[in-house]
Amino acid sequence: MIGILKKTFVLSTFAMSLTGLNAQTLNWISSTEGNTWQEQKVKLQASSTDTPILKADGTEHIVTFKKWGTCFNELGWDALNILSMEDQEKVLDQLFSPDGDMKFTMGRISMNANDYARDWYSCDEVPGDFKLKYFNIDRDKKTLIPYVKRALKKNPNMTFWVSPWSPPSWMKVNNYYSVRSDAKVNKLPEEATIALYEGKDNVDKKFYPKQVTENDYMIQDPRYLQAYADYFVKFVQSYKEMGINIGRVMFQNEPWAYSIYPACAWTPEGIIRFNVEYLSPTVKKNLPGVEVYLGTLNTNRIEYVQKILEDPRMKDAVEGIGFQWWGGQILPKIREQYPNYKYVQTENECGWGKFSWKDSERTFELMNHYLGNGCEEYTFWNAILCDGGTSSWGWNQNTMLRINSATAEITYTPEYFAVKHFCNKVVPGTKVLTFKEPGDDKLPTMILQTPDGKFLVIAGNFNDEPKKLTVELSGKYLEVELAAHSYNTFCTK
Predict the structure, then answer these.
(1) Which domains does the chain have, with CATH numbers?
(2) Which pTM value belongs to this model?
(3) Which of 66, 154, 373, 460 is most buried, by the most CB atoms less than 10 A from its CB?
(4) 192-204 pLDDT, tens per residue?
């Protein structure tokens, strides 16, 4: 009986796949620099003399995609408030409304300051406050919480997750927010970095980081570790009191980023200890239903991630793993080795504030890579910034919406359209069937299936000249010429 039901399900899925092909016509949306979101019709062919670069019939399945999201930062809030109220509503609609361009349904919230906070802070800077008597989110009530609530008005069903850049400074071995010193950016004495490498020189430029820390910068005394786990609980509870439900926590943003802005260096041993012995049991006891994920992992040193995941206690401590930046390089191998975890992408690479079409191609490539390698969620960094997208310490980053602080003019950057080609059509419940990395042909391509059984093809051409794309969909052929440096989405209405 089970076999009959399974066969029936497969045949039903196949029939649904064909449903979108009976009309023989797809809606083709294309974008090139200066000519974005252009729509036309394209007919499917019964045969082809070309070998398809991808083919699918609806029975394939890499992952079922769940959520697109973005972060909520103070400088994003400041950029939004440069606009008139009418333009603010327009922007928020485009980002968060179910009928908007991006349809974001998830938000990342930084616990304490990050590099896009106005300045550096935590929710408790009273040294030795192990009982967190002085913990408060007063600052967030003026910036992040109003920002989040504006998004919730557009979509009350949004979900949220949390990851800190740095613990409170008094919980760290160097008593400071950053890990490394830089006289132009922070007030950390240069000699305070001694704990990082202890004078050792083990540089290998093939990896990130080029050299790994010798010590945990989070103090490993049980009083500090338990206080920090309790700190996560207090943060989630405090946000809930404000009407914002946080459903997931991750212990650290980029534990291998030894940065001059808020950060915290961790060893594999420290990561295991805090997650297994403190954070996970404390969250499970005090926050029923809140997930603990291991993230956000930002290294391509696979042996370090393997060491963490090989601890037999880890599988019960965390439900999933979040990758970003250099961590994306090892995602395919890690997922192959540890298939029982859920995988998510936690922060899109944010570039260098050039706002170029070439930079946006990198974003398009990353979305293709992470979804194709099994990530069921994808989080973008700042969706909106003003002027050069400059951080509080001087790093210019790309963003989707760029606000001129002098004129309040809104610019829809190339990044916006790279993202829109995925987010606008890949709705929750869409299945990722098969994909292809850019490769030598520079044609990143993905075939998906929407919840109503229709095929969806998303393809880029990163070449300087037009290129032919041939894809097979249940025995029918999509054959088109993609414009140079273009984004393309093919779908049925």
Answers:
(1) 2-60+435-491 (2.60.40.1180), 66-425 (3.20.20.80)
(2) 0.92
(3) 460
(4) 899 999 989 889 9
